[in-house]
Amino acid sequence: MVDGSIGDMSTHTPADPSPQPRGLTPDDPGRPSGQGPAGQGPAALPVADAAYWEAAAETFDDEPDHGLRDPAVRAAWAARLRTWLPAGPAEVLDLGCGTGSLALLAAEQGHRVLGVDRSPRMIERARAKLAGRDAAFLVGDAAEPPVGERRFGVVLVRHLLWALPDPAAALRRWAGLLVPGGRLVLVEGRWGESDPIGIPADELTRLVGPLAERTAVQDLTREAVLWGKEVRDERYVLLADLPRRHTEVVDVHLVVRRGAEVLLARRAGTGYADGLLNCPSGHAEDGEDVREAVIREAAEELGLRLAPEDVRAALVMQHRAPPPARPRIGWFFEVVYGTGGEPWNREPDKCAGLAWHRLDALPDDMVAYCRAGLEGLRAGHRFLLHWHRPGDPIAYDPASPGRAVPLDASP
């Protein structure tokens, strides 16, 4: 993941003598070579390397639109943010936050900010810059932010989406982190005149369209004060407001059965329930049905190659983690061990290991709703509610009240 604010990347002409960001000059062999397939991001992205941004942290704020040290530049960004963000205090997720310059402006306007960036040195500088403010910062992948079940009023992203391998997937993930009626604020562009890189506004509008109730594009090219100089390439912000109606994430869980045993994965590095066991799982993506989703997740997490006829829907559960988390619909699918190959841990950054456990003797160190789902499945139920109350632990606790409510139980 690159940092969320890369500054000016214009190709130079004699009328534009300002320096390029280090490592991204037109003559540099490491310069991105342009877009790959539509919607799939740039074809070559050395700037996505974390080491690049670690090295850049030292001088990152020297760019006018990074450090916002010029009072006129700072005031221009503050004025823009005031129109993009809600009037009242909101939870703002700043992805690819860099050294926290935009996060500081948002905090000064009364918002509660969580910044995420993959560079520890950038995060260190952001924490120092916002010391004493209502803000927190995490080191992590902005495409898969480690925020657990938290939801936000605004997801703010500047000059980041163009560099991701799958912008459409990132947008779906970010939209899922918003409360109903929340807003995506996407500052993007096409930098350079002879060999431009980035995402045109019409392309980003197409990608965001299926997720949003309303979209609006504002041209920022002519606002030289935002960039600290005149620019001639395409720069814009896209504002996308999500529907206000109630929506729920649909997640899928794979129950691999080996006789009396089931396969459990230990969560790690996700920001939610890390260290606890649960079934291999994920969520359905836009336009994907639940069976397609669980087959995809089985391949991504376990290396299993499953066909539709290999999986069987075993249980459906509406569940909610402890508030303020929002409800989800969980589909549990069963598959017999040996089908599709031998399971192995394909995502060690998200899973600390796989282990078999007896279904009639499940371990205590599990995600509570997943354990409830497996116990409901063992009892023969097909439909459950599992609704955490305020103060409930995420982990299963045998001393806590049971929250599972069968919906197919006899009167």
UniProtKB/TrEMBL annotation:
CDD domains: AdoMet_MTases, NUDIX_Hydrolase. Residues 31-43 have a biased composition (Low complexity). Residues 1-43 are annotated as: Disordered. It comes from the Bacteria. InterPro entries: Methyltransf_11 (IPR013216), NUDIX_hydrolase-like_dom_sf (IPR015797), NUDIX_hydrolase_CS (IPR020084), NUDIX_hydrolase_dom (IPR000086), SAM-dependent_MTases_sf (IPR029063). SUPFAM superfamilies: Nudix, S-adenosyl-L-methionine-dependent methyltransferases. Keywords: Hydrolase, Methyltransferase, S-adenosyl-L-methionine, Transferase. The keyword Chaperone does not apply. The keyword Hydrolase applies. Residues 245-379 form the Nudix hydrolase domain. This is Nudix hydrolase domain-containing protein. It comes from Streptomyces nigrescens.
